[in-house]
Amino acid sequence: QVQLVESGGGLVQAGGSLRLSCAASGSIFSINAMGWYRQAPGKQRELVALINSAGSTNYADSVKGRFTISRDNAKNTVYLQMNSLKPEDTAVYYCNVRRAEAGTTYYYWGQGTQVTVSS
Q1: What is the pLDDT along the chain (119 residues), one digit of tens a residue?
Q2: What are the CB-based long-range contacts (under 8 Å, 24+) for 16-20?
Q3: Which of 14, 40, 53, 79 has its CA at a distance of 20 to 30 angstroms from the CA of residue 25?
Q4: Would you say 80 and 50 are in contact if contact means Cβ atoms under 8 Å apart?
Q5: Residue 77 to residues 26, 46, 80, 92: CA-CA distances in angstroms?
């Protein structure tokens, strides 16, 4: 099992910045990717950014050039630096961790942190 603790959400004006953090604990030895998803009211959960164990990253088109995902393997923590925030970035942001074991990939989710961007 993997436990995730998120922090860093809040209310910010358009054009502002926020930094989300997610610390993993538990069965962290076989984590291969960490990332962030978000879900706005009435919409499906969508991938925002992902980083694998080699440091390769993947971003949603809507956040490219504005958001940066990073990972501190020593602290088992993933970060999402969000700059130039827009009202359409308003959502609950969920940390996601993928762990591989015996050919099966397990997905773990954080509790979610609210990000609200005012216009």
Answers
A1: 889 999 999 999 999 999 999 999 987 778 889 999 999 999 999 999 999 989 999 999 999 999 999 999 889 999 999 999 999 999 999 999 998 888 899 999 999 999 999 99
A2: 16/85, 16/117, 17/81, 17/82, 17/83, 17/84, 17/85, 18/82, 18/85, 18/115, 19/79, 19/80, 19/81, 19/82, 20/79, 20/80, 20/82, 20/93, 20/95, 20/113, 20/115
A3: 40
A4: no
A5: 13, 21, 10, 19
